[in-house]
Amino acid sequence: NNGLFTVNPSIIGLMVVGVRVQEFRDGQLIGETIRDFLFKVFDCNITMQAILPDQDELSSFVSYCQGLTVEFENNSYGGSSYVWDFGVSGTSTDVSNSFAPVFTYPSPGDYVAQLIVNPGSECTDTAYMNITVNNPFSLEWEAEDSLCILGNNFEFIGISSNMSANFEWQLDGDASIDNWNGIDIPDISFLSPGYHTVVLNGDDGDCNTSFEDSVFVVPQAEVDILIPDEIECIGLTISFESDYSNVNSLLWNFGNNGPNSDESSISAPVYTYTSSGTYSIQLIGESVSNCSDTASIEITLNEPIVLDFTNNDSLCITDGLYNFQAQVSGPSGAEYLWDFGQSASLNSSNALTISGIQFDSPGFHEVQLSGTYENCSDTISELIYVYAEPTIDFDYFDGLFCAPSLAQFINLSTVDGPGIYYWDFGDGTGSEEFNPTHIYTEVGNYSVGLTVISLEGCIDTLYEMQQDIFTVHPSPVAGFQVNPQNVDVCDNEVSFIDQSIGGTTYFYFFDQYQFTSSEPNFTHAYVNDGTDYPIQVVYNEYGCTDSIRQEVFVEPFVIYAPNTFIPDGDGVNDIFNVVTDFEMIEWELKIFNRWGEMVHRSDIIQNGWDGMYKGVACPDGIYTYVFTYKSCANPYTAEQKSGFVNLIR
Q: How far apart are alpha carbons 156 and 212 in whole angstroms?
């Protein structure tokens, strides 16, 4: 019925298609038109095809009411040239050769766009797209925003490009109405604070659209005043604090009638009042205009209790009298009280000036001054010092004192503060040390005195003498001689000759401290070789001692056997023999060759081996020697030693 039909040939060749159009009026044929079309049909390998999407498949498509301009898209393939006809009747300029053109239609309406791919070639293809365009249908609304929850009332005004369209409002469940028809909606209120979504839908018959936005309902402001504990007792400068929510601005009024200087807009102000009294404090917190909360409180302020006092300090316990003077300020009617402690001659008093207080114990004492008014109080305290009286006493480390003797003194004196100490050791010398030591060089009896001077507090000079506390006895002088000082293990006797002075008892340690003797003079045969340091210790009748040492050298027994000899007749190293400087009581030397055959024997120490055996010279080589002997060092026991000697010719 629309005059468009499609023919799909099934054979190759020339085809004629005839079209007849008849026009009727009131059921009567009034005209007829006949047209014939010749088509050539041939075998075409499909490597090209014209393809157009539907309008709502275009990537730029929003709605059929988005305006008169269309951004076409071309999904064809295999083509090299393109002809577009955008379907505007009565004009020949609605064409384009672009691959994907953009075209603006002259007016709203329905159009059929045509695309021919590879026009005029043997293999071509055609595609069509139905287009519907309308002028844009715009829609939005406006309203006053951010109203206070208290008495909120909104008026929503719709704005559209077609004010004659149909409009419907949708509101959330907190609104005073759920929906409304019409371009405007008045007198809408919301039950809760926060954001509320409002939707306006529009339909003009051809197009429909919607606009969504929200309004904010400001919550109720909440404020509270926070004041310090016991505010009536802290003076005239007050640190206020606030507790608030949903507040953008604060305004304090401190109730001090006068100019704006008693106002503040910070959250934690500090305000100083000029006098005591009762004040009404107000705090206003506001979130937006006409959305506020007010907190009020009444406070009573008193003059602060301020305490201080002066006194003399650091007096002696025996005659020190302390005076105290209070400096106070505070509310009229405040009461003040001293507390001097249980050691004071006066424990407490409410007079501001106190004189002649004495303490019965030395050291630090705490003195307190308190002030009270109604339920307000304050206390200050100070430590005063009472000096103790000095004392004197001393002791010493007792024992046996032998000249020269070291005496050690122990000062038992006490001085509260700095002091001076003078010692007299009884021999014309002294010291200013606290715990001195002294060496007595002369024999005799000694008395010792101590003077103590205190320089602060209880100032005094004390003296103590202890009679004949030291008896210094004479000391013996050790001395002895050893003769001879050098011996050997065979000739080993040494005489010890006493040369000490003043000794009555003797004690010797000698021969590597393996032997002792309490005789002043004696002789000892050493059994250990090497260097020895004998010691003499002498005692006198008082128990005083002295000691000294000497030196004795005992030469050890030594025997030597060479490891090589050369019997070549040159008179040098021709004979192998064992050599010693000590007397031999018995002696035997044997020489063996490598086969164990004895090639030499001698029992006379002077007779060594000349390298001969039975008149024949022995060959070069290593020989074993064995010698057995008894020496003067050990005449009763035979000893044997062996080794190797190298014979070289």
A: 12
Q: Using an 8 Å Cβ cutoff, are 462 and 392 in contact?
A: yes
Region 444-455: mean pLDDT is: 96
d(CA 54, CA 64): 12
Residues 213, 233 within the same domain? no
CATH number at residue 579: 2.60.40
Distance CA 426, CA 447 (A): 5
DSSP string, 479-546: -EEEE-SEEESSS-EEEEEE--BS-SEEEEEETTTTEEE--SSEEEE--S-EEE--EEEEE-TTS-EE
Return all residues near 5 (Cβ < 8 A) that are at least 6 apart. Answer: none
**Whole-number mean pLDDT of the chain?**
93
Preceding peptide of 404 cis, ω within 30°: yes
pLDDT at position 405: 94
On the 0-12 / 13-18 / 19+ scale of CB atoms within 10 A, 536 is: buried
204 has pLDDT over 90: no
Task: Check residue 190 and give its pLDDT.
Answer: 96
**Do 372 and 442 belong together in one domain?**
no
The reply to whether 502 falls in a domain is yes
Give kind and range of the element (H or E) at residue 196.
strand 194-203
Residue 382, pLDDT > 70, answer: yes
Number of Cα atoms under 13 Å in the Cβ half of residue 267? 8
Residue 260 has pLDDT above 60, yes or no: no
| Structure letter (DSSP) for residue 643 | E
Whole-number Å distance between alpha carbons of 577 and 106: 148
What residue numbers bound the domain in which 150 lies? 139-218
Residue 205: which pLDDT band, with cuts at 50, 70 and 90? confident
User: 590-647, pLDDT tens digit by residue?
Assistant: 999 999 999 999 999 889 999 999 999 999 999 999 999 998 888 889 999 999 999 9
d(CA 306, CA 331): 10
**Cα-based torsion angle of the residue sequence 630, 636, 640, 641 in order, rounded to the nearest 10 degrees:** -60
Sheet holding 95-96, edge to edge: 95-96, 82-85, 109-117, 125-133
Is residue 281 domain-resident? yes
For residue 5, tell me if it sits in a domain: no
Q: Does the residue 491 lie in any domain?
A: yes
7-11, 120-124, 537-541 — which is least confidently predicted?
A: 7-11
- Strand boundaries in 44-87, DSSP class E: 69-71, 82-85
In this structure, the answer to whether residues 18 and 116 fall within a common structural domain is yes
The pLDDT, as a whole number, for residue 258 is 62
Q: What's residue 72's pLDDT?
A: 96
Distance from C-alpha of 613 to C-alpha of 590, rounded to nearest angstrom? 12
Domain count, the chain: 7
The per-residue pLDDT for range 502-523, each reduced to its tens digit, is 999 999 999 999 999 999 999 9
The SS3 call for residue 261 is helix
CATH at residue 102: 2.60.40.10
Mean of pLDDT values over 103-114? 94
